[in-house]
Amino acid sequence: xxxxxxxxxxxxxxxxxxxxxxxxxxxxxxxxxxxxxxxxxxxxxxxxxxxxxxxxxxxxxxxxxxxxxxxxxxxxxxxxxxxxxxxxxxxxxxxxxxxxxxxxxxxxxxxxxxxxxxxxxxxxxxxxxxxxxxxxxxxxxxxxxxxxxxxxxxxxxxxxxxxxxxxxxxxxxxxxxxxxxxxxxxxxxxxxxxxxxxxxxxxxxxxxxxxxxxxxxxxxxxxxxxxx
Length: 228
Known about the structure:
Belongs to the universal ribosomal protein uL16 family. This is Large ribosomal subunit protein uL16m. InterPro entries: Ribosomal_uL16 (IPR047873), Ribosomal_uL16_bact-type (IPR000114), Ribosomal_uL16_sf (IPR036920). The structure is a single chain. By secondary structure, this protein is α+β, with helices and mostly antiparallel strands. The chain has 6 helices and 7 strands, in the order αββαββββαβααα. It has 2 domains: 23-39 and 46-119 and 126-176, CATH 3.90.1170.10; 194-223, no CATH class. The strands form 2 sheets. Strands 3-6-1-7 form a 4-stranded antiparallel beta sheet. Strands 2-5-4 form a 3-stranded antiparallel beta sheet.
């Protein structure tokens, strides 16, 4: 918990200096509602997907950085977001941000993956069940939402940390400074490393000590064993 003088300082926070150069998006500054179901063309019918667990397996390799280089929420493991989770994020953040000096943008699409479910007590059989709802699959290290503008990390943390704790998977509040520090630390470890078995990608590729018998083919593709 922050000290009283720090909390009192937040109430009278005034941006100046480097925060004047913050770039705002051209569209609305608050989060817009996401559609509950995907939009289909005329006469098109949504197919029933298999489970496709690879949609949430492994690390995110594309949307794993902050576009606006300020603050956001990052997932720490794979999971699925329902429309209720997305509405909770939108309502909470729109209520807390000051539109005159802040903005928030989505980094995930609306629900698009169909999930089937049978009614309670229904007899098994009869083919695949009907589509019950849609979800948005998320991989580890995916940026879910960004917040920026004229605010410091204390104010951004107070807005985003509570939202990250309510998600159905582990997530955290991140800033551009935190991500840069982690990248520099990882580069330093690689440069100063004297362990021939680190990073584990080379060890898994050459099957040292029969290491492939303890991993899945996915770990061999990723070159690390940090993800499920």
